[in-house]
Amino acid sequence: MITTEIQLPVMLQAGDPGYDEARTVWNAMIERRPAVIARCASTAEVAAAVRYGRSRSLEIGVRCGGHNIAGLAVPDGGLMIDLTPMGAVRVDPVRRLAWVQGGALLGELDRAAQEHGLATTAGNVSHTGVGGLTLGGGMGWLARRYGLACDNVVSYEVVTADGEVVRAAADENPELFWGLRGGGGNFGIVTSFEFRLHAVGTSTVVADFAFSADEGFAVLAGWRELSATAPREATFTAYVAGDVVRVGFVWVGDPVAGASLLPALRGLGSVVEEDVREMSYLTLQTRDDNVQGHRYRRYWKGHYFTSLPDEALRALLRNPGIGASLQSYGGAIADVPDADAAFGHRDTAFEFVTATRWEDPADDAERIATVRAYAAGLEPYASGAYVNTLNGEPVRRAFPAAKLARLRALKTVWDPANVFHLNQNISPS
Ligand SMILES: Cc1cc2nc3c(=O)[nH]c(=O)nc-3n(C[C@H](O)[C@H](O)[C@H](O)COP(=O)(O)OP(=O)(O)OC[C@H]3O[C@@H](n4cnc5c(N)ncnc54)[C@H](O)[C@@H]3O)c2cc1C
């Protein structure tokens, strides 16, 4: 254990400059007021903030990118440990490693690594936090080649519930290392992630084909078959909204090789609209930043599927006019033995998310009900859900029973009082 000096961070309270900005998160439905916000700039300050909160029995929330759909980072009346001042990224291009502070956003990691033609698996909207995304697993366009974000973490620096600092890696606190790889923010506050980087270059291809509505089923069925044999450079994507059906893929690597997949997709039906673009990796990683911007009210539900039977495709096509997307898994995600990490569903073939955004609070009930009803229609075919898309469902959707039991035992060791419970909570056993 590394002991730290008492060094309190800047503390903000209601009325202080910056307080409202710091408590505002991605989903505009979240309106909570922490009693105090600790703006932490170092590991020692995080440790001091944990001790401060515990000594005053304050409920503790941990904020990185603020993208959790339910706003779990923001406690009402409690202490928000705000990691956003800790956004630094350092890259060693020779050893292909990156050290990323616990409050960094994905864009900071991508930009620093791409200066050297390197990258690691990260999500596809650059203002998402490295912290929450990686601790829950971390799906991105490189995952089928290199595994989830958590599969690329070599070590973590963690502030525990007792305010102590420990390191977790394969050879140091290995059970904690296991739990941090997909178990969410349950076991401590990660102040630094050490990531493995890969020489991916800077080129990508994004392909998107829209088909006429009456061909929707045949197109999706054909896309499903093509995705099963796709090279790992390709992540297959599909999008349904009302009677719009679009399928395609994102390819990270040599664009010429990526283009070889185009004829098969084109041949799935009568293409109404085609959009095939080469773009830089950094453009790919930021292209949805605006549409996924901060000022909207949001609601979503997600499922994992190990297969997509025809009935599931029909349920997908009974779409009430809200966006629903599918993204293929497999490849290197499934290569990792299931027992090696806490992440729950390595055998996932497709992730489904249906999401809506709106601005008028008067529409809340209707929007939420529509998403719930649509997602419920697909639930019979689902194997579970991604812990980072859970939105009110029990955590057992993200972890099979045996894994959940192991996670509970780990929680009992590292956080028996459940200090860190504003997350997809694994209660101590
Ligand atoms: C626009 C958008 C795009 C997304 N795209 C993807 C994607 O491509 N791939 C994917 O896998 N997921 C994606 N997600 C889901 C995302 O992984 C989750 O929303 C995740 O919770 C976001 O993490 P955050 O740090 O931004 O959120 P926050 O709300 O800041 O944190 C969420 C929770 O994570 C924990 N936490 C965060 N940082 C730390 C830390 N350093 N130490 C300990 N605990 C911590 C806390 O428990 C906190 O409550 C996306 C979400 C959004 C809103």
Task: Pick out its properties.
Uridine Diphospho-n-acetylenolpyruvylglucosamine Reductase, domain 2, Vanillyl-alcohol Oxidase, Chain A, domain 3, 18 strands, Uridine Diphospho-n-acetylenolpyruvylglucosamine Reductase, domain 3, alpha+beta, five-stranded antiparallel beta sheet
Q: Counting H and I runs of at least 4 residues, what is the number of helices? A: 14
What would the principal axes of the Cα set say about the shape? globular
In what range is the share of β-strand residues? 25-35%
Overall mean pLDDT score? 97
Q: Structural class of the secondary structure composition?
A: alpha+beta
Strand order of the largest sheet: 15-12-14-13-17-18-16
**Percent helix range:** 25-40%
Low-confidence stretches: none
Spell out which ligands are present. flavin-adenine dinucleotide
Biggest pleated sheet = 7 strands, antiparallel
How many domains is the backbone divided into?
3
The CATH class name of the largest domain reads Alpha Beta
- How far apart the termini lie comes to 25 Å
Rg computed from alpha carbons, rounded to a whole number of angstroms:
21 Å
Kindly state the number of beta strands.
Answer: 18
User: What's the CATH topology name of the largest domain?
Assistant: Vanillyl-alcohol Oxidase, Chain A, domain 3
Which architecture name of the largest domain does CATH use?
A: 3-Layer(aba) Sandwich
